[in-house]
From TrEMBL:
Ranges in coiled-coil conformation: none
NCBIfam families: PRK07231.1, PRK12826.1-2
Record protein name field: Glucose 1-dehydrogenase
Record lineage: Bacteria, Pseudomonadati, Bacteroidota, Flavobacteriia, Flavobacteriales
Source organism: Ulvibacterium marinum
Keywords on record: Oxidoreductase
Amino acid sequence: MRLKDKIAIVTGGSRGIGQAVAELFAKEGARVIIMDLLPQGQEVADGINENGGKAEYHKVSVTDKTAVETLFEQINQNYGKIDILINNAGITRDRTLEKMSEDEWDAVIRVNLKGVFLCTQAAVPYMKANKYGRIVSAASNVGLRGNFGQTNYAATKAGVIAMAKTWTVEFGKHGITANAVAPGFTMTDMVKEIPEQHFEAIKASIPLQTVAQPIDIAYGYLYLASDEARFVSGICLTIDGGTSR
């Protein structure tokens, strides 16, 4: 098992990529703490436990500084450490720049960028205390190349990559690595809402002529969270079928 006895927090672990990460990490021996506002997180945790894994669900928003700090302190008290933080929670509020409202801008910045900041800030002291940590944050290939109607989303994902590079410099001496994963189109609930004609055009634009499944992205997270990647820090691992070549 690649994550045996590790304590792993997965934000946004109730569905999609986050759910795939939570389930895969549990199979690899980690105790998984799912942190999400969606009640499906309890179902994911129950499923993991029923299949012999170890998981728990906490209804906490990544944007609530006090709640995040309280939860992380509780986790550290219960298990004596926090080994892995997967900053996966994210939202979209797509609209072209000229039509985008300030509320739509602020909502995406608050969850996708500030949420990553708050969770990492809360986790790092416990990682430093144990001289070990793996921080992996959800970027997107949109953060590398931009995308029509996603000024807010692209800005947050580029910011996540920059934060990982900064944290590499700040925390490397404490045995902590920080990386990002940039998925391309993945069969999540958000992608399923795309009209079929547009979806087929997207698929045709990908060199591998298909879209990712959540597990394809989860394996990238697994590598960066494992000891196999002990000398990998400050990178953005792009998993998009060659779109960002």
